[in-house]
Amino acid sequence: DAKTTQPTSMDCAEGRAANLPCNHSTISGNEYVYWYRQIHSQGPQYIIHGLKNNETNEMASLIITEDRKSSTLILPHATLRDTAVYYCIVRLNNAGNMLTFGGGTRLMVKP
Amino acid sequence: NAGVTQTPKFRVLKTGQSMTLLCAQDMNHEYMYWYRQDPGMGLRLIHYSVGEGTTAKGEVPDGYNVSRLKKQNFLLGLESAAPSQTSVYFCASSYSGIVANQPQHFGDGTRLSIL
Fold it and tell me: Which of A2, A58, B43, B62 is the Cys-Cys partner for A26 at CB 3.0 to 4.6 Å?
């Protein structure tokens, strides 16, 4: 699986958009980009995933660059409850379906 | 919907004791996983199962055993607990991994301390 690089921490003002970057320069053609988050003391929560095209769901938007070497998770209107560690994960399309979690980005949403 | 349920939520053991952590899912998922998370670190895969009666090793399997006798349950066993196994343990499940883009659903974890 391709390795990902994320900033260790970020701050965001409540009500503003939170843009979390992820670099995955060694990604291969059949690897998906997944985003999970982990709120303190809870299990990881799936947010969104994509292959090539930008994706949007009720939680967030995922923007993947044309060369697929980086992506950005966008929380359009961050709330205090969005304070969490956000993990960007790149996965191979194989039967194992395992996730490899790195250090993630600690997002602090401030009033 | 219960989703993924882990029991117990907390446990304190003495070195050398044994115990079993239980994970149950009600989503009819084929795949199940056990991860551990140490302070300040991401999750690491211990063992996983691709179906009833099958198990496989993950990244950090030593000191643990697993069983998947029923599709909905995945058990993680510590035969002789060691302080290095103090951690938070997360269970997850997903639909068949043959189709890659199936997200994993996680339980809320078991906090295990070994003295």
Answer: A2
- Ranges of chain A with pLDDT below 50: 95
Q: How far is B44 from chain A (nearest CA, A)?
A: 7
φ, ψ for residue A81, nearest 5 deg: -70, -10
pLDDT tens digit string along A91-105? 765 545 567 777 899
B7-57 pLDDT tens trace: 999 999 999 999 999 999 999 999 999 999 998 777 888 999 989 999 999
User: Are B48 and A94 an interchain contact pair (Cβ–Cβ within 8 Å)?
Assistant: no
Residue of A nearest to B103 (CA): A46
